[in-house]
Amino acid sequence: MEKILLTLFAIIFLNIGEVPAVDFVYAQEQPAPKVLAYYFHGSSRCPTCHKLEQYSKEAIEINFKDALIAGKLEFKVINVEDSGKQYYVDRYGLYSQALILSLVKDGKETKWENLNKIWEYAGNKEIFLGYVKGKVADFLKETQ
Hints:
This protein is α+β, with helices and mostly antiparallel strands. The protein has helices spanning 2-14, 47-63, 65-70, 86-92, 125-141; strands at 34-41, 73-79, 98-105, 108-114. The protein has a single domain (34-141), classed as Glutaredoxin, CATH 3.40.30.10. Strands 2-1-3-4 form a 4-stranded mixed beta sheet.
């Protein structure tokens, strides 16, 4: 029995070069689509600038808890005057505080929008929150 096993092993070992090679292709997982909500500001900030950030954060955290937890939505506050942040100024044409929504699919930004009416609605929290909620909801629909 031992002799037979050794013979089989030798045959298999010697003929290994004749066995066709099989290339296994594993599908690389693409990152899930998501929405990035960026609140951009400078180093010098007035009370309205702080209010814009507060309302933006509130609109997103209250209305989209599940999307935040699931990683479909991220809220980031970025000081464009910090080192290495000039990219955002150039990319989005920033000249003041702004709330930008960015749709990211397959790891690449496919669409973005400056929610420039936040300045107009800063004096009315209810309208501000509704505006941001509606825009974020529209972007999140595109992650499905």
